[in-house]
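Why do we care about 3D structure at all? Because function follows from shape, and shape follows, mostly, from sequence. That is the central idea of this module. The next example makes it concrete: a single protein chain, its amino acid sequence, and then its structure expressed as tokens.
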Amino acid sequence: MKCHEKVQIDEDADFESDTTIINIDAKNQGIRSEHSSSYDATSDDPSEIVISCGYMKVIAAYDGVQADDTTTINGGEVDIKTGGGSSYSVSSSDTNSYKGLKADTTVTISGGKVQIDSRDDAIHSNKDVNISGGVLSLYSGDDGVHADNELNVSGGTTSILKAYEGYEGVFVNISGETSYIYTSDDGMNAAGGSDSSGGGSWGQQSSTGTLTISGGYNYVNSLGDGLDSNGSIYITGGFSVVGETGNGNGPLDYGDHTGDVFEQSGGFLAAYGSSGMAVNVTGGSQASYFIKHSSVVSTSSYYIVDIGGSTMYVIKPKVLSYSLYVSSGSFSSSLSGTLYNASSILGGTELFRGVYELSSYSGSTSLGTWSWSSSNLHPATGGSSSGQPGGPGH
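And the structure:
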């Protein structure tokens, strides 16, 4: 399906919201809205795709749904498979594009159900991506959601179940959604880098970029860095859990430029995994604790965060762990704490992805102790490394 200017699938275009079914099996692109050869940006309408109702299945040899300007999904159900699916990857010599949803200017998703299985990025914009609603299930041979400029996620539920990198943009802003991210490299990556084939760089390379989490529930399970910014990371809200494996990476990574920081001033964050490149915060108004330890906390064991003699949080790792960073608005700068490795717990309420409160425990071994004060909000045991220089894509 190909046209100039606008492809519109909604009730205003005489499609029935409950009964419209569109099946496309294309040897090239699935749906394409493109500029005409005589396009004049000052006078012609933009090329856009709007999907608001019905059921659409697109199987395409190359890009699934692409607009030269904007691609918008407000409702309906969209199922896309490109380039044979995520079991394939794009080689450095392949100049074709196999993306799922794509736009040159903006991809916007505010509702509906979206499932994508793509050889290349599942969702891609050469400028911005905005996700404020909907239920997304993404499988990608490269990135789950990629924006060359801003990636804004403020609502809905996004599950990136297979990808090289999960959320990727120069400026990544997470403010109010539920995200489940499983990647073979970085979970969230801000400020440019390389694709999975290693072919070329993207983004505003002169910018330090930022990763900001101000809300939502976020779970990352990554083989590369969990949360990664080539510039700064700011955590001001939300509830985030990060599990990372591989000593060439870390649960958290930041600071490729002088003056870059990792600061937490709100929300909850537990980030655990390997210890080789694990880092602590540089600052922030909220108390935290960071530790590297030589003995493993396995996936059948538990971190016990004991504050002032009472169990405040229990964290059950989803990966083998030799380091932990934890911060919560419940931590008081006037108290002290002890971190234990426990073999079992009894009771408690799971808050999100292996984080519990109000549990009793047994079979415990102390890993570290600390005291907070107004002059020491971010104590560390076994190492206090800050962000590691890495360059784009690290």
